[in-house]
Amino acid sequence: MEPVRPARDQLTAMPAALGIALIALLYASVGHGGASGYLALMALLGQSPAEMRPAALWLNLLVSAVATVQYARAGHFAWRPFLPLALWSVPMAYLGARISLDPETYERLLAACLLLAALRLLGLFGAPTGATRPAHPLGAPLLGAGIGLVSGLVGIGGGVLLSPALLLLRWSDAHRTAAVSAPFILVNSAAGLVGLQAIGPPAGLHIGWLLAALAGALLGSTLGARVLPDLRLRQVLGVVLLIASSKLLLP
């Protein structure tokens, strides 16, 4: 993928800010931070991985923090399923962020994550078809560690990987999955930023993006925690992620 020089100017424009707000709204409605969506937007505009990862993680940190509070206030959060996942994912997310991938490998890995996120938004992974069951005592730490490593490598919080796994394994229902995913994304994003040594917001991260993400997160997490999310809008975002994934996979 060839870098596009005017990409930064395009990203600071109003349409990009609106796009970030919409991504934050849609992802926060299912307890996610939106990193895969922000990365898709930046990939479509030709940003380099060095710019994409820290910017996406900072936006992710903000949106997942809002979603964590909203879902906890609505009574959906529980420590028991969260801790075994997070305790193993955080150090792996830090280690993953310390690894610099070559651009082609990064793009392929990112494309796979975007594809999974798109399938999640398009409804491939729905609510559990049977009664939920406790997480496996060994499987949960291994799942957390694997997702944490990929999260650090790509620059996401891991929610797009965690949510389908929890639903398919029937370890959680839809609302509890969202409530666990939000803080999981929060701690992994923080670990990734520490690993990247991006303690302060990167120069390329416009203040308008943060404000747009905050507005979207507040609305989306409220809808997701207390109101039925808008399926049609999530399907539109799913199509956008499919396009971004295809752009990265095809020469």
Report on this model:
This protein has 251 residues and is mostly helical. It has one domain. Helix content is 72%, strand content 0%. It has eleven helices and no strands. The chain has helices spanning 7-11, 14-28, 35-44, 49-73, 79-97, 103-121, 139-154, 159-168, 174-195, 207-226, 231-249. Helix 3 packs across helix 11. Mean pLDDT is 81; it is low at 1-8.
> H/E element string?
HHHHHHHHHHH
As a percent range, the share of helical residues equals over 70%
The whole-number mean of residue pLDDT values reads 81
- What best-fitting shape do the alpha-carbon axes yield? globular
Using only CA atoms, what is the Rg? 16 Å
Instruction: Look at the helices and sheets and give the structural class.
Output: mainly alpha
Count of helix runs: 11
What is the number of domains? 1
Flag low-confidence runs. Answer: 1-8
**β content, as a range?**
under 5%
Question: First CA to last CA: what distance?
Answer: 8 Å
